[in-house]
Amino acid sequence: MDHIDRSILRQLQADSSISNQDLAAKVGLSPSPCLRRVRALEASGAIRGYVALVDGESVGAGFRAFVEVRLEKQSEAFSNTFESTILRRDEVLECSFITGDYDYLLKVAVEDITAFHNFMTQVLGRLPGVANTRTMIPVKRIKETTALRIA
């Protein structure tokens, strides 16, 4: 990956709806070579897909919470059940297996505190193997981005 590929990635992270013509102009290429590079970045997996960033408040998912989850024990059965359930839950935006006192960190987006309570009691609270949870509710988002630093 050279500096032009990195420039393409930076531009697409800023605006993935940019036309190939405009992208080519911004990175200093003609349209055909630019499109070939974009296709190569897609084929290599450097570009995994394209998305629209939707405002959570506008669609009834403006309440955010971070939930740490500890399993009763590090067993394959508990982990598999937990992970397969989380993969099916639309309100979970991110789930990471983490180090430290807890096993998983979830980023959850729902309509309001009532919907969050329902998720905690009706979903997480009913999963076998969940020993306990700890929740952090942000009161102000200082920074929120999906763009990765491209060196």
Automatic annotation (TrEMBL):
One Gene Ontology MF term: sequence-specific DNA binding
Domain HTH asnC-type: 1-64
Gene3D superfamilies for the chain: 3.30.70.920, Winged helix-like DNA-binding domain superfamily/Winged helix DNA-binding domain (1.10.10.10)
UniProt-listed InterPro entries: ArsR-like_HTH, AsnC-type_HTH_dom, Dimeric_a/b-barrel, Tscrpt_reg_AsnC-like, Tscrpt_reg_AsnC/Lrp_C, Tscrpt_reg_HTH_AsnC-type_CS, WH-like_DNA-bd_sf, WH_DNA-bd_sf
UniProt cross-references to SUPFAM superfamilies, sorted A to Z: Dimeric alpha+beta barrel (SSF54909), Winged helix' DNA-binding domain (SSF46785)
GO process terms (BP): regulation of DNA-templated transcription; response to amino acid
Keyword Hydrolase: no
Keywords attached to this entry: DNA-binding, Transcription, Transcription regulation
Originating organism: Ruegeria marisrubri
Keyword Transcription recorded: yes
Protein name: AsnC family transcriptional regulator
Listed GO CC annotations: cytosol
Organism taxonomic ancestry: Bacteria, Pseudomonadati, Pseudomonadota, Alphaproteobacteria, Rhodobacterales
